[in-house]
Design goal:
single chain; 1097 residues; 37 helices; 4-stranded parallel sheet
Length: 1097
């Protein structure tokens, strides 16, 4: 039913020391505690006078606003309890912070910030067109379009070029779809692809691919600078070359000199005036757009009037026409026949009777149009590619010529040659950098008005636009330009004009100037973006050796990162070949795109709750297809470059995994690991474990000291040596108390366990349990540690250090119970005695033996342990010895042969020795020890006394016991009173505890048992008590006249002798492994178990 509320205005009151209330002109609300106290004054008077504000605050769980500051609760939540106020923010303030969250692109605007260090944060205003579409367009269209696309079309043909462009564009389109899904699943700050991959696949993949992306961006700078210098030295200022000549080293050396100077100039501009680079970005974009428009205008013009550019052919060979004007052998001037400049190139003199080159003599010179036009039908000749080796002349198909045997390499100053070997995969590697740059929009997500809408639309629209431009250019170039001209990479056959320039309208200089500024701007942007990407990686701290590059100038400029970028960029410039740098660039970008697709596919398949991208047009199959296409293109471009890139990324991955900072970014790889672990655990549950796959899965029981530190760290060292990182290891401990009171201590204990595991190199899991008592905690761990098929089958613990001390019998009882429960759970138990004397992981045992005393067959674990230890470097030089015991009636020779055969079948290398246990007289010590054990067990069995009674009678019983034993052993000794040690109180209490219903009953509970003697006595109770004591003492005295069981005496004799043999044979061994007897089924024999089992080693 509805509840009615009445809103009453409440005046704010201020409590004074005398209890008076005065009105205050503040809007601070009155506390709930004060309202309740005003209504319940009569109740408060029963509790006495007020003891002050502190006592009032402690007496109520509600807010007490008395004596608080005026604005203490401003922007606080409306929590009921005070301790929740700081941990849970106010809803309105939380929403306000989330709505004002911004992450601007760092480094671009720092130079324009105020000098006082205040960062000017403005509301992002860029839309899809300005913020995403145009930056992507500018980064995608560039140097390859203007300098290499015509050569790719001429070499691969229209169909081959279409296949190259289509593959690359589809690859980037699929990557853009995956990137849009990731980018719209959250805010993408600076770093772009690095941020997306690292937060989706984890710091290892993020760091590896981020550095590859950084190297790709840096080599892109080298590519653009080389393109700039190529345009400068070939088309703008060809006379500015330092090295002259036509040899193969002149041009590369010129590229290196001018490229280095250009890199230094650009680095200086980026360091000093990056804001001018940003302001010139629109100018660079305008150059690109104008150049493309000029190209399309030139194509349309070819329909009306083809440009007047001709190509001179000798036979079917194309010639460089930069050194001659007339394409003829002879010409007639004023009725006089004279030789031309071409005659001088092929003949030894300019006279008509000169000796000329055979190919020149046998073939005629022809001149053809370089650009026949769109309607000329040249498209048929350019459909298929013409791949050729390096050094082969560029020839026109279907052109008649007379071949000769003369080599043509000595005519490199006039003929056009292929400068490199051409094949399809090489062209893919050279072309792919022209479709990179799709991350430009995602890098600016902080500057966008609506990033979740702008990034997908702008990026995909830019890719579709540039794909249309590239595909249309491939078709139009092949339909308008002659094949030999297309294969002329540098335009030497058209008077050193770029091939795309002679097609453009109105002048080739439009393309020359436009491409020059476009390449220069792209190089500056690469040198601006790459250092900031490296700075973002360094500031994340995942790669330790890169931390120095996270620093920079006071305004945030990455100075050190810029220096490294310039150094790496110089390596690309020293290569001095745009065709050689492009495949390197392709490798790094393809690897980056591969992992973007992988991240989207993993997030989609895992269906994590946090994966809620606003971009809906994605599917894991598209991401998987894009990933496969990226991987294929890597090996298509260059299989050895692909292997090098994968090795570099793998090395970075492993370095970050072992040395990098631990980051928890909620990545998909962790989710994938969880799913894989779940699947593997379910599979393990489906079928039982086969013997061949058995290995010790260890639950280590650790004891902590008063500071919650591991008391025996060598127990973890022994675990490491035993496991060598294989299988399951659970390191656990138990804290006594309740979880509510010891929650913080439990967390500290678990952290200390993890720290100890790291120090001892123990790979596994840690777990701290809080229980009402230690015994129940150990029981819980034995029963419930592990999960599914990954459960422990072996328990490792240390032997109680103080087992000889009676006053510490609680540890002994816990130890025995742990042994008993481990046995009941059908698990193996390893008990390490003198664990602090075991070798550490840094020690190396230089010899010695590991002795195995195989007395009882335990299923083979005793034989397996020395083999496992010998795999570790600590025990590697130790030899294995196996001892077994032969009784009087056993054939020791045959036993040794059988044991050697058994060891051989186990594939172990061990020395076998059989120890013969001859029958001998039973010593007095053995007889006395057996008798004491039996009498003690029988005595405690008959004593059903309370704790108070045991304290009163334990001394007299012990005295009688010692006197009786002496009479049995030495008959000639007179009965006398012997002062011996009393039976400890805790040992008598042990038997009493075994008979209780639950082993969580403490001594305090036992003391409060109903069996406690009443302090108020009646005459009848006094007589019953005296009779009871008299009967108990009489039973004990009769018990001391008993004789020990002969079989027990014989077993004790065998144990004593065996202990002596073990001490004698294995005194100098490094480690002794032997079977520990199981705990007695009768709990009344627990005390004898530790007293006899703990002796010897």
């Amino acid at each position: 039913m509805p509840t009615n509320f009445t809103v009453v205005p409440v005046e704010d009151v201020k409590a004074s020391g005398s209890g008076e209330a005065t009105a205050e002109g503040s809007s601070k609300p009155i506390s709930l505690g004060k309202i309740f106290r005003e209504n319940d004054d009569d109740v408060d008077t029963l509790q006495g006078p007020d003891s002050g504000d502190e006592s009032q605050k402690e007496s109520t769980p509600f807010f007490d606003s008395d004596n608080d500051t005026k604005n203490y609760y401003d922007d606080k939540n409306m929590a009921l309890y005070e301790e929740e106020m700081d941990s849970t923010p106010m809803v309105s303030s939380l929403l306000n912070k989330l709505s004002n969250y911004t992450n601007l692109f760092p480094g671009v605007c720092e130079h324009e910030e105020t000098e006082d260090g205040c960062r000017r944060v403005t509301v992002p205003q860029m839309g899809t067109f300005i913020g995403v579409f145009l930056p992507c367009l500018q980064n995608i269209l560039g140097v390859i379009l203007f300098l290499r696309l015509t050569w790719i079309v001429g070499t691969a043909g229209i169909l081959g070029s279409f296949a190259i462009v289509f593959m690359c564009c589809v690859c980037t389109l699929l990557t853009a779809i995956s990137m849009s899904a990731i980018a719209t699943n959250g805010v993408v700050p600076a770093g772009g692809a690095y941020y997306m991959i690292s937060r989706s696949l984890g710091p290892e993949f993020g760091g590896a691919v981020g550095l590859c992306f950084y190297l790709g961006t840096t080599f892109a700078g080298s590519l653009y600078i080389l393109g700039t210098i190529e345009i400068l030295l070939i088309y703008i200022v060809p006379t500015a070359t330092v090295f002259k000549g036509h040899d193969g080293d002149a041009m590369p050396n010129n590229m290196r000199i001018y490229g280095t100077c250009c890199l230094a100039l650009m680095a200086l501009v980026v360091f000093v005036g990056v804001k001018y680079v940003n302001k010139l970005a629109l100018v660079f974009l305008s150059c690109v757009i104008l150049s493309i428009m000029a190209t399309y205008a030139g194509v349309i013009r070819t329909i009306i009037e083809p440009p007047e550019f001709n190509v001179c052919l000798l036979g079917n060979r194309s010639l460089k026409n930069e050194n001659f004007e007339v394409c003829a052998k002879k010409e007639v001037i004023k009725n006089t026949t004279i030789t031309t400049e071409l005659w001088n190139h092929f003949c030894n003199s300019k006279h008509l009777n000169a000796t000329c080159d055979d190919y020149f003599t046998l073939n005629e010179l022809t001149e053809i149009q370089a650009i026949p036009g769109l309607l000329s039908g040249v498209i048929k000749d350019n459909l298929w590619g013409e791949y050729a080796p390096a050094g082969m002349t560029i020839e026109k198909k279907n052109q008649s010529s007379v071949p000769t045997q003369e080599p043509t390499t000595d005519r490199d100053d006039i003929y056009l040659f292929n400068d490199i070997n051409t094949y399809f995969t090489l062209l893919v590697g050279i072309y792919f950098p022209s479709v990179t740059g799709i991350m430009a929009g995602s890098n600016r997500s902080g500057d966008l008005r609506d990033a979740k809408r702008s990034i997908p639309i702008g990026t995909i629209l830019a890719i579709l636009t540039t794909s249309f431009i590239y595909i249309s250019c491939v078709v139009l170039f092949g339909a308008c330009i002659e094949g030999v001209v297309l294969r002329d990479k540098f335009g030497y056959s058209v008077k050193k004009n770029p091939v795309i320039g002679i097609l453009a309208w109105p002048s080739p200089w439009v393309i020359v100037i436009g491409s020059f500024f476009s390449c220069s701007g792209a190089g500056l942007q690469s040198l601006t973006g790459a250092p900031r990407l490296l700075q973002a990686i360094a500031r994340d701290g995942i790669v330790p050796f890169l931390r120095v590059f996270g620093h920079g100038k006071a305004n945030g400029e990455p100075t050190w990162a810029l220096l490294l970028t310039v150094g790496i960029c110089e390596i690309g410039i020293l290569i001095a070949s745009l065709d050689a740098v492009a495949p390197i660039l392709s490798m790094f970008f393809l690897m980056c795109y591969l992992f973007v697709n992988l991240a989207c596919a993993i997030q989609t398949l895992l269906r994590t709750p946090n994966w809620r991208p606003r971009f809906r047009f994605y599917h894991w199959t598209l991401s998987f297809l894009g990933m496969s296409l990226c991987l294929s293109l890597m090996f298509i471009c260059s299989w050895y470059y692909a292997l090098v890139a994968i090795v570099i990324a793998g090395c970075i991955y492993k370095y970050i995994e072992y040395r990098g900072a631990v980051k928890e970014w909620g990545d998909g790889i962790r989710g994938l690991s969880l799913n894989a672990a779940r699947y593997a655990l379910i599979r393990l549950e489906e079928s039982p474990l086969h013997t061949k796959n058995w290995r010790p899965q260890i639950l280590v029981m650790c004891k902590l000291d008063s500071d919650l530190a591991v008391k025996h760290p060598r127990l973890l060292s022994f675990t490491t040596q035993l496991k060598a990182g294989k299988g399951l290891t659970i390191v656990s401990t138990v804290l006594e108390g309740t979880f509510m009171t010891r929650e913080d201590e439990a967390k500290t204990a678990e952290q200390n366990l993890k720290a100890a595991m790291v120090a001892e190199r123990t790979k596994g899991f840690s777990h701290a349990v809080v229980s009402s008592n230690l015994r129940d905690g150990f029981s819980i761990l034995i029963q419930s540690a592990g999960l599914g098929g990954m459960k422990h089958n072996t328990v490792l613990m240390a032997w109680p250090v103080t087992w000889r001390q009676a006053q510490n019998s609680t540890a002994t009882r816990n130890f025995i119970e742990t042994v008993r429960e481990t046995t009941a759970a059908n698990q193996a138990l390893l008990v390490a005695k003198n664990i602090d004397s075991f070798p550490g992981n840094q020690q190396r045992l230089e010899g010695g033996t590991i002795d195995v005393w195989w007395i009882v067959h335990d299923g083979g674990l005793l034989m397996l342990l020395p083999f496992l230890l010998s795999q570790h470097k600590v025990w590697r030089k130790c030899k294995m010895r196996v001892f077994t015991v032969a009784q009087l009636n056993d054939n020791s020779i045959q036993m040794k042969k059988d044991l050697q055969m058994f060891i051989y079948h186990l594939r172990l290398d061990a020395k076998v020795e059989v120890v013969e246990m001859h029958d001998s007289d039973i010593s007095a010590f053995t007889y006395e020890k057996t008798l004491r054990m039996e009498q003690r067990t029988e005595m405690l069995k008959q004593m059903q006394l309370s704790r108070t009674e045991r304290e009163r009678e334990i001394q007299s019983i012990t005295d009688v016991s010692r006197s009786s034993i002496k009479r049995k052993t030495f008959s000639d000794v007179n009965d006398s009173h012997v002062n011996t040690q009393c039976i400890p109180e805790d040992e008598a209490q042990l038997i009493h505890d075994r008979n209780t219903a639950s082993h969580s009953t403490s001594d305090r509970e036992a003391g409060a048992s109903p069996e406690r003697v009443h302090m108020t006595w009646t005459k009848e109770k006094l007589l019953n008590e005296k009779n009871r004591q008299r009967e108990s003492i009489g039973q004990v005295k009769d018990m001391f006249n008993m004789k020990p069981n002969q079989s027990n005496v014989r077993r004790m004799h065998t144990a004593v002798k065996l202990n002596e043999v073990v001490v004698k044979k294995s005194r100098d061994s490094q480690l002794v492994l032997l079977n520990m007897p199981g705990p007695p089924k009768n709990m009344k024999g627990d005390a004898n178990f530790t007293k006899n089992g703990g002796k010897g080693f």
